[in-house]
Inverse folding.
């Protein structure tokens, strides 16, 4: 792979990763504030909140799959762990929200370790099989132990009460966006750290990584735990947004959508997680408005979004194999080469043609 | 004791369906190293075609044959249009494409046939047979399930062992480059593998249809259990698919019968873990040791 | 007659072959010699269509092979025995042979050719129903060659058949090859590291170094050229 050329230098971001990521996150937070407070309707604001918690789950999975090379079909189940943990805390104890969210993350991370340990011995399709059946099986515990989890009825969550006259839905959205940005900063720093390099080393070549002194199994379990913790937070937010947690909230299709959305956005990139979140939230919306406009019956209505999502997934995988973000990068580097660099003496270009 | 026998019989008949599903996955996996997640949805789709034919007063066996034939065509089309162009690309991409196809097939079926569950009328009675004075949980339809999957396996065995196409398919699966050097048109052979797999998947769809709430998602569970069975058996071996299917069927049935039906998938997970911890590549993975 | 003319092959940025030409006559053994990485295997892979040259043409009996697929090259009568023997371990000896004979079409022709090649390699006859994974190194090499012959080729490309074989087995193998090239009027191209034994049975030889032809002559005159032997062939 040729190195992607740096963008033109209109301004320099600081080199220190933490500072750079924090600046980006603060800029993004400002943008989200304008978007949710002033531009969008309440209905669309809620959708932005959904995008935010999907982005958390997708970002975590993106690191597991993209950076560490492990596949998981079970992230819906790990979201269920976070959601049920948060809901149980809310029903029985009621501490403060941040603590409850942290415990939900912790519980999901522990579940991630439990899944991750056997996963260290399994390769691609075998790991896929194990996590796939986990995605089906784990949420059903909600039905099996009805006295704890209240079966199909589920557990009711208490949405956080906003200060002053802030709309409660807007408040929850802001909390979700803030949570997502905090997670993004943490994940971005993690990827720049020693752990990020260890994840990638294990993905690229386990034998070489272990010869370089990396504890392969431990690295894989850590990646699984980080990823599961993200899913747990996403699940807790899902629980708060929907107001109730029941086993039906976490079907197999959720796990599959999380995986598909992550790959669609671009495995291994955190920006891609947001593209994936947008696709997961907005495709059904767009589809229903399209089918309304086209005057289709209600039967078509429910499925058009599904069909579009699946078709886009297939097309992106065939045409832009590294996902939406990868596609953008390619277009970006092409434009960069063509528009911003002089024609002669372009080192990157001659390197690229030479390697083909 | 009676209960145990009934649970066992139930496990055998569902295990045979898992085996058919697993066989479909194995045939594709051993040829192209891809897990076809759309396999269940393809079987669902062809079974819905059969359902529509039955509604048009077409006879069961005609509809049955039509569904298998359409399944075969569907397998060829999917391989040629969606899988072939991705040959040699990143490993994850064709797998995600099959997930996209799963979503699309379920969406199209929902659009055409609606999301309400229907009844698919069986060709044989589903009331339990009588042994002496007691009725057992095994019907004529269950017999049909077992017989048709055994026939499927036998046909595949004969095909693979004793025909030239089978020899080419085995060669292409085990050593694609060597096979090409011997004049095997590996591309055609892979297409044939997808076609045969799609027939097995369609058969599974037709066998499940009368036993369940027949809607666009009815094959999801069978995909999951079929995949479990295939992994238990070793993903590479048709015999493993049969054994894995029976082990999974019995395991799931015992867990459901004695512990509660909500625990069935976790029972299958436990089974999978036990097998994979002992043999990380499944029970019958003969070639695995050779691959580094 | 197999003619290679000005062939260049590139793997990414690496030039594997540069402007290579050679002619292999019918009924003779042509050996390609050279050190590791000289491009011998690449040259064979180019002949059988496994890699496509950037430049140059390969002709067989006057027909152009360059640009054709492996399957078409096999059907034109060229059989390639890859390095490391390439027997399919999961198949029995007989199944391996049957696989080789499949392009003949008719079942009776397949039966006949299998009987013929088993005659040529008696140890295989006794092992015909065993899995190829149970064969010894020498038996595997016999099987790989027998399987290639089962397609009734007009040219046989052999990639390091003596690799890992005991000297006595190698000697027997070389004798069989010499016999084959004479009696079956087969064009044989033999890639070898073991230059001494290859030159002893070949009629002509080509020496490659870093992807280029450094010498091409009759086998006997190359064997007599001590300077060349020291430089490129190591004996």
């Amino acid at each position: 792979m040729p190195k992607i050329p740096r963008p033109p230098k209109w301004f320099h971001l600081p080199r220190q990763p933490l500072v750079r990521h924090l600046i980006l996150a603060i800029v993004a937070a400002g943008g989200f504030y304008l978007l949710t407070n002033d531009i969008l309707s309440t209905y669309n604001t809620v959708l932005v909140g959904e995008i935010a918690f999907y982005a958390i789950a997708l970002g975590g999975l993106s690191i597991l799959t993209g950076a560490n090379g492990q596949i998981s079909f079970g992230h819906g189940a790990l979201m269920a762990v976070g959601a049920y943990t948060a809901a149980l805390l809310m029903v029985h104890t009621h501490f403060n929200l941040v603590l409850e969210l942290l415990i939900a993350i912790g519980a999901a991370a522990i579940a991630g370790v439990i899944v991750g340990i056997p996963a260290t011995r399994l390769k691609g399709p075998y790991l896929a099989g194990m996590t796939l059946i986990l995605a089906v099986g784990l949420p059903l515990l909600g039905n099996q132990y009805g006295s704890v989890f209240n079966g199909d009825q589920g557990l009711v969550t208490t949405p956080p009460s906003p200060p002053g006259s802030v709309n409660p839905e807007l408040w929850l959205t802001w909390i979700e966006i803030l949570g997502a940005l905090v997670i993004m900063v943490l994940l971005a720093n993690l990827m720049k750290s020693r752990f990020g390099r260890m994840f990638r080393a294990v993905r690229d070549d386990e034998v070489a990584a272990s010869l370089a002194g990396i504890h392969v199994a431990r690295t894989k379990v850590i990646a699984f735990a980080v990823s599961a913790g993200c899913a747990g937070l996403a699940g807790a937010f899902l629980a708060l947004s929907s107001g109730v947690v029941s086993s039906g909230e976490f079907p197999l299709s959720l796990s599959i959508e999380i995986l598909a959305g992550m790959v669609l956005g671009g495995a291994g990139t955190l920006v891609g997680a947001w593209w994936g979140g947008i696709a997961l939230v907005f495709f059904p919306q767009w589809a229903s408005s399209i089918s309304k406009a086209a005057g289709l019956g209600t039967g078509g209505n429910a499925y058009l979004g599904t069909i579009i999502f699946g078709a886009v997934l297939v097309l992106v995988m065939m045409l832009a194999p590294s996902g939406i973000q990868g596609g953008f990068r390619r277009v970006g580097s092409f434009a960069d080469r063509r528009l911003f660099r002089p024609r002669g003496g372009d080192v990157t270009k001659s390197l690229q043609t030479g390697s083909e | 004791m009676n209960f145990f026998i009934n649970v066992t019989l139930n496990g055998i008949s569902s295990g045979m369906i898992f085996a058919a599903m697993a066989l479909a996955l194995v045939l594709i996996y051993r040829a192209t190293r891809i897990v076809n997640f759309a396999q269940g949805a393809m079987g669902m789709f062809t079974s819905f075609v059969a359902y529509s034919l039955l509604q048009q007063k077409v006879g069961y066996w005609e509809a049955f044959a039509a569904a298998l034939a359409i399944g075969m065509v569907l397998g060829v089309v999917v391989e040629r249009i969606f899988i072939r162009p991705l040959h040699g690309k990143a490993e994850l991409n064709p797998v995600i494409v099959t997930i996209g196809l799963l979503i699309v097939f379920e969406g199209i079926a929902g659009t055409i046939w609606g999301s309400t569950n229907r009844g698919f009328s069986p060709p044989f009675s589903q009331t339990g047979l009588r042994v002496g004075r007691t009725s057992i949980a095994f019907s004529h339809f269950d017999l049909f399930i077992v017989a048709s999957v055994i026939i499927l396996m036998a046909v595949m065995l004969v095909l693979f062992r004793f025909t030239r196409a089978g020899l080419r398919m085995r060669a292409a699966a085990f050593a694609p480059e060597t096979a090409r050097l011997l004049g095997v048109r590996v591309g055609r052979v892979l297409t044939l593998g997808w076609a045969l797999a799609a027939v097995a998947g369609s058969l599974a769809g037709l066998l499940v249809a009368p036993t369940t709430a027949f809607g666009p998602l009815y094959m999801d569970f069978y995909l999951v259990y079929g995949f479990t069975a295939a992994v238990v058996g070793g993903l590479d071996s048709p015999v493993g698919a049969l054994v894995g299917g029976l082990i999974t069927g019995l395991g799931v049935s015992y867990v459901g019968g004695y512990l509660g039906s909500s625990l069935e998938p976790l029972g299958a997970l436990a089974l999978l873990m036990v097998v994979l911890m002992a043999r990380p590549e499944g029970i019958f993975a003969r070639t695995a040791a050779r691959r580094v | 007659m197999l003619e290679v003319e000005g062939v260049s092959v590139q793997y990414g940025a690496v030039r594997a072959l540069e402007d290579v030409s050679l002619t292999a006559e019918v009924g003779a053994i042509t050996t390609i010699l050279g050190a590791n990485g000289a491009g011998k295997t690449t040259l064979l892979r180019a002949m059988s269509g496994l890699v496509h040259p950037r430049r140059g043409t390969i002709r067989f009996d006057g027909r152009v092979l360059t640009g054709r697929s492996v399957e078409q090259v096999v059907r034109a009568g060229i059989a390639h025995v890859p390095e490391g023997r390439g027997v399919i371990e999961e198949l029995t000896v007989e199944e391996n042979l049957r696989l080789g004979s499949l392009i003949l079409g008719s079942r009776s022709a397949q039966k006949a050719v299998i009987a013929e090649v088993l005659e040529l390699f008696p140890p295989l006859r006794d092992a015909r129903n065993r899995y190829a994974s149970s064969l010894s190194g020498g038996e595997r090499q016999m099987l790989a060659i027998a399987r290639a012959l089962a397609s009734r080729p007009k040219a046989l490309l052999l990639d390091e058949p003596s690799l890992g074989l005991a000297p006595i087995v190698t000697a027997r193998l070389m004798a069989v090859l010499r016999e084959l090239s004479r009696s079956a009027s087969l064009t044989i191209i033999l890639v070898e590291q073991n230059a001494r034994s290859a030159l002893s049975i070949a009629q002509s030889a080509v020496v490659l170094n870093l992807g280029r032809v450094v010498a091409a002559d009759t086998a006997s005159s190359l064997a007599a050229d001590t300077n060349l032997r020291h430089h490129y062939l190591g004996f």
Chain A has a mean pLDDT of 82. Chain A has one domain: 17-271. Strands of chain A lie at 155-156, 244-245. Residues 17-271 of chain A form one domain.
